[in-house]
Amino acid sequence: MKVLQEEFGQVDGKQVYQYTLVNEQGMRLSCLDYGCIITELFAPDREGNFENVVLGFDSIEDYLTHSPYFGAIVGRVAGRIAESEFELNGRRFALPKNEGQNHLHGGPRGFSHVIWDAAIIEGENESGIQFSYVSPDGEEGYPGTLQVKVTYTLNQANQLKIRYHATTDQTTLVNLTNHSYFNLSGDLKRNVLEHTLTMDSKQFFELDEALLPTGKLLNVEGTPFDFRSGRKIADGITSSHPQNVLVGQGYDHPFLLNKQQSQEMVLSDPESGRQLIVATEEPSVVLYTSNTMEDTFKIRGTQSGKYMGVCLETQGPPDAIHHPNFKQCTLEAGQVYQTETTYTFNGVK
């Protein structure tokens, strides 16, 4: 499986490249070395027709001006950190405030806004790109020099695998995710309200007014947050549940997964027959249904707006450093941060 490399634009005078992977079935993945952004992902419908199923742009200028993290790797820490500060080993660290008083997705110059080194992987049954980046001690306020690798591979089974790897020379925080917005209708024919999601989760994290976890886990039973038997995304948009209302009518919540690497999530578009199966080693996932997406730009000719995509951000619990009862995202010198998420695309008759 070959990999195509082409120029995509420039950021701060540096060339940005796009890499395209294609398998024998016709599935195609394109991604940038800027932010490891997945720009396009062509997947089959029930008739075998391949169309793009992620939100993105055709120019680097649009990513710089309009993108709400479309397709990017976010970090060092995904999600919000309360009051943009934390304490480690008796030391206090201050981070940039880029969402009110809080720190979001690694800051204004987080991993989604830098150019990564890229190495092409070509094999008979899969191809890929290994992105690497060295985040220096103190970058965006975080301690320790962090060496990060993110690998995207596409195989003949229509699977995209994302592997994360990081090491540090001093204790720091690491919690990475990919922020792709999925819309399985194909080429943005419709919004995602009629998409159905099945998710193996009995609890979700309660949020406060700043969309930060309160520390409390809520049971999904009897609520629009119960996806165990599958439900439409629209259920959360029409809901009067205080947590749906809080985030702008929809979902922007972390869910605790019952188990890992066993098809924890299945997203489907009944009209096209497209299905996305997500399996992860992570303990939780943030479900975001683009409730607050602005209608001020175009997405490849289609007007932006609410409910255009579904994000399934596999990761550790957000703001864990402020909640001792959460699984922590602390990485110490000598330890290895390593995790994998697999996305399998099918067309279901």
From TrEMBL:
Per the record, the pathway is:
Carbohydrate metabolism; hexose metabolism
Q: Name one GO cellular component term.
A: cytoplasm
Key words, A-Z: Carbohydrate metabolism, Isomerase
Q: Where is the active site?
A: H179 (proton donor), E313 (proton acceptor)
* Gene3D superfamilies xref list: 2.70.98.10
Which residue spans traverse the membrane? none
Entry-linked InterPro entries: Ald1_epimerase_CS, Aldose_1-epimerase, Aldose_1/G6P_1-epimerase, Gal_mutarotase_sf_dom, Galactose_mutarotase-like, GH-type_carb-bd
What PANTHER family would the database entry show? ALDOSE-1-EPIMERASE (PTHR10091), GALACTOSE MUTAROTASE (PTHR10091:SF0)
Write down what this protein is called. Aldose 1-epimerase
